[in-house]
Every structure is written in structure tokens, then in C-alpha cells.
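Sample intake — Integrase
Collected from: Streptomyces beihaiensis
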Amino acid sequence: MRGRPAALPMAGYQAPARVLLDEGRCTVRVISEDGCTSKDFDFTVMPVARALQVALAEAFDRRTGPSGTCKSISSANGCYYGLRTFTEYLSTLPSPPSGPAELRPGHLEGYRAKYAGQRTLAQRVNGVKRTLRAVTGVSDAFTVALRGGGIVRDRSPKVPSYRPEEFRLIMAAARREARATAARIREHRQLLDQWRCGAVDSGREPDRWQLGQALDHVETAGDVPRRLCRNGYRYLPHDLAKRWSVGDLIAMVHLTWCDAMPFVVLLAGLTGQNGSTIIDAPAAVHRPDGGAGGTPNAIVELVKPRRGHRSHMPVVLADLPDWLSTGEDDEGPGQPVSARDELHTPLGVFLLVRELTEPVRRITGTDRLMAVRQRKGFRTGRPLSPGTLGTAIADWSHRAGLGSVSSPVAALPRGGEVSLPRLRMTVLEQRQQAIAHTDEVLVNEYLGRDRGNIGAYQQVVSRALEEQVSRAKASALMPVLTADEVELAREHPETVAARHGMDSAVLKQMLSGELDTVLGACTDHHGGPHSPPGQPCRASFMRCLECPCARATPRHLPVQILVLDGLEAHRAETPPARWAQRFALPHAQLAELISRHPPAAVTRAREQPTPADRRLVERFLARELDHS
């Protein structure tokens, strides 16, 4: 299938300038990656010489431009603030540098010493160094100082995860609020549909007819009908103001910023994504299910700008199958959850939010999921201030009663305020899976610093390890031909073949290496237990460890040792519970299999792997050999 050429700019097109240096200006214009927002950053306010202002502005442009890592306005704000504090420090020196060539390693040390007492020292200094690396014309010594290792970040515990009962209570409160909001909006939109169809009689139902007329204006224009007064202000007409307030009328058909917070909490608790990523999510999705039945699912393109070239993340949102009832309902422990409840699945919440925000998207022309109405207009996408969302979530938690004295969540910091970082930490601990970051970040930045449920977590890991080791001991491992049996098979193949339940011709093929898989040899790849009879085996080669069709010889020992070492290496970079679930069983099986060989043979085998063996094991552990 042939595609179509990508859209290209017209001939002679030139990208608009981002660094503005004319007429005494020194300004960098940062445009968000989606092109929806922009902001000008003035470098003339920095108290350094003009040459250094220009050099810093150009470096700032490289870091915030299309190929940089600061692709959102909020991250550009942080980058700019770091440079400004650095120049303020330089201005206090007896001989401030007048250009990039005069920057010295001592300037970095002095800047570091100035903020040494702050907990955010590592983020501040390391961020400035990343930007200064893009400055041209600096000395070699300064370049070497910038390339040096960064300051080790504070590894003290982050905010702890929620206890299970706390997490359950928060999600239940969010579902109650979200259900009430959805019911209110759907009820009034139904009234609006009836009014537009002429089903509401103005004579018999004057109040409903008047409300329908007002809602028609609100739904279409995004604002209430207003009358102009002498003072120039526009007010709600008296006949409407006697019954409803402006906010009430708008909230009848539009999802407001305040009412959107329970939905943000639900999406954060169900997906584990950052709050800013959820707020900035698009409304468009791809439906691989095609409505053809089965479990509904959708793929949404989320963006996390600080991930650089990996900022775009296709995320699968799945519903629950109709036959599944799981978890606990809002009524309390032990109450089954209906799989048809849209607020218990990420896809259900996403589609409900998209339904409730459709009018605002039509009015504003945005493609954002969280297109909501707020007090002074509309809000589409992430707030410019990072703290805005956290404040709104905290305010919602107080309105929902989560900070009351009688609530089990009253022990949370700051009087029971719900925190999106704590929700994310809880989801990561529950799933033991990296979400929008690497496994290394999951282990070091999240699970390794979460002490909220460390005791319970250690018990889960220990229990999983014990279960997998017990299963390995109870399972039947592949038989091993000893070195003596291999020698005997050269003269008496029928005897050895009968001993191991195979044909002598198959034994000959196995000893010649024709039947090798990875960890052993397969005597019948059409008769294994992991595929229908007569069909080729499609199971992972790791399953050979317990397959009745598999056999091992001393020739397979070097590869088995490499795989065992590879599983051990995975333990250092994989969350403990996840490692226990995925690798503890084959690790125990391999250890048992290798122990059947004499220690001297194992020692010799460690020195015998060839480059081909190592490459095979690398591909095997990277799952390149799995059947696609």
C-alpha cells in the first residue's frame, strides 16, 4: 500500500523568528508544541551585559525550540527563572562577566553555594547547567565544568501513597460527584432538546419554557442572555435572575472547571497519568475495536512534554468486559462493581467527559478533552500556572467532605486535601508498572522513595517469591542428558533414546543441534501442551523449562547460565513485585536445572559462551524471539 506525500511548506517559506533582537529588544518567543499558546520572555531585564543577554537568549531558544526538551510554557517558565537567578547572582560579583567567553567554573560553584540550603538545589543548578550547555562561545574550562556530573537529587521520601481504604474512599467520592454532575447536565440537555423540538408548551409550562429558552442561549453561546445597563455592565434579565444565578444556568448544560475535578481524579486514579497530562489530553481517539464487539477499547495520544522526543504517548483506554464484575462499589466493601458502570473504567470516564464537554469544544474550536466553562470564560487544556490544578483538586476535596473530622482520610496532609501526586504514587505501587517513564525511574524515583506502605509492599513481594519458588519445585523440569549419557548415545543410541522416551533418529538430531531452541532442544514441536494437537508450538522458549517435549544436554549449559545471569540483572532494574511475578518462576527453574550439573561443569560452562551465544541470549531476553 502506497501512502501520500507529507504536507510541506510553500516554496520560499521561512519560519517566524523566535529570538527578537531588533530595536534594543532581546526577547524569545516560546510557542507550545501544539501551537495553541505562546509567551514572550524578556532577557533585557536580566542584570548582565548585552552580549551575555543575547547568548543566554539564544541558548534558551535552543532548549525551548522544536528540538529542545522544554516544550510547554510552564517548563519554559522554570528554565527562564533559573537563568534569571543565575544572572542575578552574576550581577553581585565584583567583576561580572560581560560575555559568554568570560564565564568561569567558579561562577557555577558560587551559584551553587548561594542556594546550598534549599531542598530544590539539584533541580535549580542542574536545570541551569542544561541550558548553559547550549551557550556558544564559552571557554573550554567552562564547557568541562558543564559536562560534569550533576548534583545528586534529594532522595528523601516523597509524598507517601494512600492506604487502600483512603484510595477507595477518594475514588468513591469522585464517582458520587461525577455521577451527580453527569445526571444534572444530561437532565437539562434533555429539557433543551424537548424545547428545541417544540415539546415544551409556553402556556402550560411557562417556567420550563423560559428555562429551555435560556439554556438554548447558554448552550449555543456559552454564556447567559444579558441585558445592558446604564453603567455599561451586562446583567442577567430580572425574570431569570429571580429564579437562577448565572453560575447555575451555565452549569446546567456545560461542565464547569470546578465540576471537572472529580473526573480528573478518576482519570488519574484509573490510568496513573500526571494531572497535567490528563488536563491536556485530546478528545480524539482511535477505536481499534471498531464497534465489532468484545471489550471496548480506544487509543488516545497523550503528551508529556518533558520527555523530549518521547513526549507523545499512545495510551490504551480499555473498558471492562460485560461478563466481569470486580472490585468494590461505592456502597462499601464486598459490594460488586458492575462492568457497565462507566465510572469504573478509564474508557468510560473518558467518553463521559467527552460527551459533557462537546458544546464547549464546538464554541471554542478546541480539540482538548477538558474543554470546560469557568467563571471568566473557557478553559481548554492545561493551566499556565502549575499550581492551579493542585489548588482546584484540594478545593474539591474539601467540598466533597474528605477533610471532615469523621472521615478516615482526615489524617492526610493539610486537613484531608486530595493530592494528584499521591494518587499517581498509589497507582504505581498497585500496578508495579512504569507509566509514562522508565522502569529505572519507577524504582528509584517512586517505589524506592515511597514509605507509605513499605511493610505491606515487602510482604507482597515475599509472598510472590515464595509462591513462584514453590511452583518451580512442584513443576516437572525438562529432563537433562548427562555427559555420560551423551557419550553412550554415540555407540548405543537406542538405549539412551528409550531411557528418555524418544526415537533414536530424534536423539541423533538433538545431539547434532538440529532441534535446539534456546534453553534446550525440542523433540516434538507439533505435540507440545501449549498449542492445539498437530499445530506448531507458539509458546515462549522460556516455557521449555517445564515442557515434556524439551530435553537439555551439557551443550546447553552456557546459554542457560547466561539467561540466569540476565534474569538476575533484571532484578536490579525492575520493581521487586513485578520481577517476582514475571521472572521468579523461570529464575528458580533455571537455578534448579543448572544445579543438576556437577559444580566443575558449571564453572567450565561460564567460560565457554561464544559471541553467538551472548547475542542469542540478548535477543531472547529482549523478547525478540517471541512469536508475534
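Post-analysis note: The chain is about 50% helix and 5% strand.
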